[in-house]
Amino acid sequence: MTRAVLTLVLIGVSVCIVAGSQVWPVPYRRFDHRPKPDPYCQAQFTFCPTGYVNGSIPLMKDEDIIEVFRLQAPVWEFKYGDLLGHFKIMHDAIGFKSSLTGKNYTAEWYELFQLGNCTFPHLRLDVEEPFWCNQGAACFFEGIDDEHWRSFGTLVPVATISGSMFNQLAKWIKEDNNTGIYYETWTVKESMAPNSTLWFDSYDCSKFVLRTYQKLSELGATFKKRVQTNYTRLFLYSGEPVYLGNASSIFGQHGNKSLATEIHKFYFPYRPHQSFKELILSIMDIYGKSVLLKTFYLFYNFEYWYLPLKPPYITITYEEIPLPSR
């Protein structure tokens, strides 16, 4: 990628940026291994409490016939019932059923430390750099909670595969999980127009399901054509993003002090555990930065980008993405 260095004055901050043959959307960065989470990151709800040790997935006999299920339910259905379902904020997963053993299994990919921690950082008094608890990972466990998925969501068969295909898929899931380590909430586009430029793509539960369906198709699975499959997406709308740098170039002794201060100010209203008065002031601050100043700082691939926001600024969609065809 060829980049030329430019200087941009951004909201009163002098920023050194790069420009040139930028690829859009920015490719999601993969890693050669999954690091251990920092002890500072604590989950309100335990990640994958009934999953197999070390993310292992049981092998099936090659001759087994495995039914594949589409699973979808409102986010936090266990706590709020169908509330978020009315806004089409849905969580996606995949179910499997062995014909030889009769056992059911669930595979899903979600945040290790809940959605808020993946979307916004912690600002610690003793650390200048914003601190992110944004790992996401696959969870594979025995059983399908029929009531959870059927009450307000979806539990429907979408394909049938062999045990041999399942074992190949299991190997791929572990590789995918160990190289794709962080959750990304936002999808960033130029506008709501169907063919507008996609700047950044999300990396969340629905994208895991879509990747898994695609892998099954590559392995030879045939999907049921009449099943409609919709997915929740959270969009930001922006003009062409501006690359700002990584943590070491922005924060610390040799960083850009003015830009570091602006990023801190931007994330401050999103801090957790606010009083009612603080929350009202934060909402006003968020509105001022996002709508009036049209400013958003995105953390992607462990780098920071400036987004010059455009109307309608943010939307939640429930888009149909068809099952793979061969």
UniProtKB/TrEMBL annotation:
It catalyses: 2 1-tetradecanoyl-sn-glycero-3-phospho-(1'-sn-glycerol) = 1-tetradecanoyl-sn-glycero-3-phospho-(3'-tetradecanoyl-1'-sn-glycerol) + sn-glycero-3-phospho-(1'-sn-glycerol); 2 1-acyl-sn-glycero-3-phospho-(1'-sn-glycerol) = 1-acyl-sn-glycero-3-phospho-(3'-acyl-sn-1'-glycerol) + sn-glycero-3-phospho-(1'-sn-glycerol); 2 1-hexadecanoyl-sn-glycero-3-phospho-(1'-sn-glycerol) = 1-hexadecanoyl-sn-glycero-3-phospho-(3'-hexadecanoyl-1'-sn-glycerol) + sn-glycero-3-phospho-(1'-sn-glycerol); S-hexadecanoyl-L-cysteinyl-[protein] + H2O = L-cysteinyl-[protein] + hexadecanoate + H(+). InterPro entries: CLN5. GO terms for cellular component: lysosomal membrane. Keywords: Glycoprotein, Signal. One of its GO terms (biological process) is lysosome organization. One of its GO terms (molecular function) is hydrolase activity, acting on glycosyl bonds. It comes from the Eukaryota. It holds the Pfam family CLN5. Belongs to the CLN5 family. Exhibits palmitoyl protein thioesterase (S-depalmitoylation) activity in vitro and most likely plays a role in protein S-depalmitoylation. This is Bis(monoacylglycero)phosphate synthase CLN5. It comes from Pyxicephalus adspersus.
